[in-house]
Amino acid sequence: MEGPEGGGAEWRLALWTLLSVLLPVLLTAWCSLQRSRRQLLIRDIFRKSRHDWSYTDLFGQPSYCCVCGEHILRGAFCGCCGLRAGERCLGRADQRFPCKETVGGTAGTSLQQHHWVRGNVPLCSCCAVCGQQCGTQPKLCDYRCAWCQCTVHDECMVDCLRTEECTFGEFRDLIIPPSYLSTINEMRKEKKTSYEKVVPYCRKHWMPVIILANTRSGNNMGETLLGEFKMLLNPVQVFDLSKIAPAKALQLCTLLPCNSVRVLVCGGDGTVGWVLDAIDEMKIKGQEQYIPQVAILPLGTGNDLSNTLGWGAGYAGEVPVEEILRNVMEADGVRLDRWKVQVTNKGYYNLRKQKEFTMNNYFSIGPDALMALNFHAHREKTPCLFSSRIINKAVYFFYGTKDCLIQECKDLNKKVELELDGERIELPSLEGIIVLNIGYWGGGCRLWEGMGGEPFPFARYDDGLLEVVGVHGSFHCAQIQAKLGNPVRLGQAHTVRLILKSSKMPMQVDGEPWAQGPCTVTITHKTHALMLYHSGEQSDDDASSLSE
């Protein structure tokens, strides 16, 4: 009797063991299948929708579904109108609530009605009717206009507000109204080009802004900024440079008043140079009357051009987007020198085309170019590691420390000849030469002025002059950045010529490095760029430099 009972117990144990192993596996597989189906459904809705949907696993503030009114921790939100919905209600929300129109309204008129979105109003917002705070109740309540951003209590919302004309709020002078674009499209179909009488084209203070954001720059804040700017402006004014080239985005300027458009570039100095090159292409096409003025929101690693123009050394979300737009409106127009850098390889029978660059910031040969070259080589191998400005600077520090020990660029003065405006300069013992167009270098150091112990004039970016300095090595660069030393000032010139006689040396133009063999480098003035200077961020030194 014990034999069969013992065998049955073993089978039951084996069966339960098998179930205990298979059941979690089957449950996990079933959950994964359901999650995949749900994700496919969500992607399909996103693809077909006129909303700019994005999915988040955790909302940054208390949020409520616009359909069922339930509190949601995760779900979808529209980056244009601010609508929020849970996963189960996403399809109904997409069908029931329209997004704000980018091109629409009645052609030939400037009238625009409010676009009311219920619930999830910004924190600390006040009712436009009674003046009391909105969004204080823990439920889906109150309204916000997706155009003018004004908020209204549920009980204060009346029929006249639903049909009232929207004024576009504080940023009316920056927004391109949908009705304006409709009118322009109709006129272009009729082959009319006289836009002067179209509202708000004829309005005196209208200065439409175009946002160009590089979502791959520096600390990867570009995507967040794109959504915030789309909420405040017309989404047609906001471009992601990872999806559309600057030259194509800037064609919007040709539909807007001459000499009135402002462009905000969200990215590093390399992104700014990319946009300025696209503006130069507009000049070649004969579109010079549509050239915009350029402001900068620094998202890169160095941001020396941004620092020079008063926009700061780096942006990490500490300033609200509304304040950034106010700064763009109040900024002053200035001119920035742009320079042509020609690199001609040595040798009579060299059939390779000479290299040509456009310089906004600086050119260098020596240790800082070597650091940039090593950094770029490392970033190309493992780009996922370089998503933080702090990590980027740490890698620069590592390669600078390494060069202090190896000194790969020593005896540079024996390998090169330097001419300033045709006059040869006798070089002391150096490892590097830097040619400056702007005041800042190396992530925030005023290189030409140094410690200020000697009466050297401030470097200007609009005087047609280049400042040329030398450094003794990576350690000397670090001393200068820490304000413990001065560079070797070699002079100022309108034209710089540098001859590399032997060996291969690292060079860079505006942070774009390469290894270069014997050659002749000639730097001459190319053109001017129209920039915007933000006086609110300037130091006393900057103020003195601008006033001179």
Structure, explained:
Helix content is 31%, strand content 23%. It has 14 helices and 26 strands. Mean pLDDT is 84; it is low at 537-541 and 543-548. It has helices at 2-48, 90-96, 159-163, 178-189, 222-232, 246-249, 269-284, 304-308, 321-330, 367-381, 389-406, 412-415, 474-481, 540-547; strands spanning 53-56, 63-64, 71-72, 75-78, 84-85, 116-118, 143-145, 151-152, 209-213, 238-240, 262-267, 293-298, 332-345, 355-359, 362-365, 416-420, 423-425, 432-436, 440-441, 445-446, 466-471, 488-493, 496-500, 505-509, 512-516, 519-533. The radius of gyration is 30 Å and the shape is globular. Helix 10 crosses helix 11 (389-406). It is α+β, with helices and mostly antiparallel strands and 548 residues long. Among the domains are: 50-99, Wheat Germ Agglutinin (Isolectin 2), domain 1, CATH 3.30.60; 197-330, Rossmann fold (3-Layer(aba) Sandwich), CATH 3.40.50; 339-527, Tumour Suppressor Smad4 (Sandwich), CATH 2.60.200. The strands form seven sheets. It has a six-stranded antiparallel β-sheet. The chain crosses the membrane at residues 13-33. Keywords: ATP-binding, Cytoplasm, Kinase, Lipid metabolism, Membrane, Metal-binding, Nucleotide-binding, Repeat, Transferase, Transmembrane, Transmembrane helix, Zinc. Pathway: Lipid metabolism; glycerolipid metabolism. One of its GO terms (cellular component) is membrane. One of its GO terms (molecular function) is ATP binding.
Short characterization:
The chain is 31% helix and 23% strand. The chain is α+β, with helices and mostly antiparallel strands and 548 residues long.
